[in-house]
Write a structure and sequence with these properties.
The protein is of the alpha+beta class. The protein has helices at residues 11-15, 84-93, 99-110, and strands at 2-6, 21-24, 38-43, 51-57, 60-67, 73-76, 79-81, 114-121.
Length: 138
């Protein structure tokens, strides 16, 4: 079982059924999840305001790269998203209003132009039918 803490802003998209996964920085010595593992979703973990808002099962676990500069891209597995409509759709699937909202959050939270980490999914990946590209390699 894996416990995952979220900011309050992600509870409503989760409850609405639009948030289907979470992106995380790599963790030293262990993965955050793997297919079949039970996930417990919390807000404000390790505080007196901690509360559980969901239970899920990991159905996929992928490496992911987010590139926010002049030519934004999101890459996972063999898929690269670069069309604005795909970036917006991905952002909504991750609990944001659109890609601009996602980029603002990431810049405020992580202050990086490029992020590499993991993507844990509990809902079916809506991008598996997109043609492969080769952004992950570098």
């Amino acid at each position: 079982m894996v416990a995952i803490s979220f900011k309050e802003r992600f509870v409503e998209p989760y409850k609405a059924g639009t948030k289907g996964g979470t992106i995380r920085a790599p963790r030293k010595g262990r993965e955050i999840s793997r297919p079949g593992v039970a996930l417990q979703l919390f807000v404000a973990m390790r505080t007196k305001y901690c509360r559980k808002f969901g239970d899920e099962t990991c159905i996929d676990f992928l490496l992911i790269a987010l590139l926010f500069k002049r030519r934004p891209k999101i890459a996972f597995g063999s898929v690269t998203l670069s069309a604005r409509a795909d970036l917006d759709r991905f952002a909504v699937f991750d609990g944001f209003e659109n890609f601009d909202d996602m980029e603002c959050f990431w810049q405020a939270t992580h202050t990086v132009a490029e992020f590499r980490g993991t993507w844990t999914l509990w809902r079916e990946n809506p991008f598996t039918s997109i043609a492969p590209d080769h952004f992950m390699g570098g």
